[in-house]
Amino acid sequence: MGSRLAASIVHRWFGAPGEDPLLVLQRASGERPEAAETLAAFLDTNSLEPLHRYLRDSGLDDAVARSRAAAIDAFVLGVSTRRRVLRSELGDPAALQAWLGTTIQHLADG
């Protein structure tokens, strides 16, 4: 898989300035079931499924593509939650971006 995939995913979570609607939903989802449902539906439609299609269209078997997309989606959401909701410092931002790109690429490639 091309490294553009990893770069675009990492950019989305590091490059969104201001009051990001995804961040608002992410913060609210722990307390409000409707926010959790809205966020899950949005992520399924705009993250998980496009990633699944991309991996499948890149030549992976449908089941393998779905599994890898789910792993990437869960990984990115976990890191995003640590950084953006829990406000955990996860080290130098540039080093974290590089590591995330490499790790996402590894998950995509298997």
Q: Explain this structure to me?
A:
The protein is an all-alpha fold and 110 residues long. The chain has one domain (3-109). Helices cover 79% and strands 0% of the residues. The longest helix is centred in the middle third of the chain and has 25 residues, at 33-57.
Quick rundown:
This protein is mainly α. It is built from five helices and no strands. The longest helix has 25 residues, at 33-57.
Gyration radius, to the nearest Å? 14 Å
Helix count, DSSP H or I runs of 4 or more residues: 5
Give the helix level as a range of percent: over 70%
Number of separate strands: 0
Instruction: List unreliable stretches of 5+ residues.
Output: none
Jot down its keywords.
about 110 residues, mainly alpha, 5 helices, flat
SSE arrangement:
Layout (H helix, E strand, L loop, with lengths): L2 H13 L5 H8 L4 H25 L4 H24 L7 H17 L1
Helix pairs in contact: 1-5, 2-3, 3-4, 4-5
